[in-house]
Amino acid sequence: MGVLTVHLLTAGVASHVIAGGEAPAAPASDDNSTSVWLLLAIALLGSSVLAGVITSVLGNLRAAATARREGYANAVRSLISRGEYPYRVRRRVSDDPEVLSALVERGHDLQEQLAACRTWVASEHQVLGTLFEAALAAIDGTVGPAIKDAWNQPPITVAAGMNLDGWGPGDPWPHVAKLERAIAFRFGPRRLVPSSLWQSLI
What is the C-alpha to C-alpha distance for residues 60 and 54, in angstroms, rounded to an integer? Predict the structure, then answer.
C-alpha cells in the first residue's frame, strides 16, 4: 500500500468508530484533564479573591477603629482642657498684651475644638453625643464662674502664688468618667452590645 492509501484507511476506520458511537480514548482523556485543570484554576482564583476581600474588609475595620479611637481621645482631651483653662488664666504672670492675647487665643482654640468634637461625637453615636453634652454642661457649670473670677484676679508674680490653695473649679474627671466608660463600648466585641443594655452598666 502507498502512504496515501494507509492514511485514507486510517481515516475511514476512525470515522467508522465515531459513527458507531464510540469516542476515541485519547480525546476523552484530554477533555478530563482539561476539566480538572479548569476546576483547579477556578478554585485557586476563588480562594485568592476571597482572601483579598477578607484582607480588605479587615483593613477597613482597623482603619475605622483607629479613626474612632482618635476621635474619642480628642473629645475627652478637649473636655479636660476646658476644665483646666481657668487655672491657666489664674496663673498668668502678667497682664501684658502678649500674655493676655495668648490666653484669649487659647480660649478661642478650645471653643473651636469643643464645637468640632461635639459634632463628631453626636454623628458617631447618638447616646455618646448625649453623654458628651452632659459632661460639657457639668464642666461649664463650674468652669464659667471660675474663668470670670480668674480674669478679675491680679497676675501672680511670685512662685508661692502658684499654689492656689483649693481655688478653682476642681477636677473635671468625675464629669468625664461616665463618658469614658461608655466609650469602651464602641470598640471590640462590646460594640455588639445594644446601647439600651450598656447604659445601665456605666
Answer: 10
DSSP tally for the chain: helices H, then strands E: 6, 0
Contacts of 100 (CB under 8 A, 6+ apart): 92
Three cell numbers, residue 92: 498668668
The grid coordinates listed for 97 are 498684651
Instruction: Read off the pLDDT of residues 45-102 as tens digits, 9 standing for 90 and up.
Output: 667 666 666 677 667 778 888 999 999 999 999 999 999 999 999 999 999 999 999 9
Provide, for the chain, the percentages of residues in helix, strand and coil under a 3-state DSSP scheme, each rounded to the nearest 5. 85, 0, 15
Which DSSP category does 161 fall into? G
The residue type of 91 is R
DSSP code, position 185: G
Q: In Å, how far from its chain's centre is CA 38?
A: 41
Using a cut of 0.85, tell me whether the model's pTM lies above it. Answer: no
21: DSSP letter:
T
Backbone angles phi, psi at 105, to 5 degrees: -65, -40
Q: 162: burial class by Cβ within 10 Å (0-12, 13-18, 19+)?
A: exposed
Kindly report, residue by residue over 3-43, the tens digit of the pLDDT: 334 333 344 434 443 444 444 444 455 566 777 777 776 76
Report the chain's C-alpha Rg in angstroms.
38
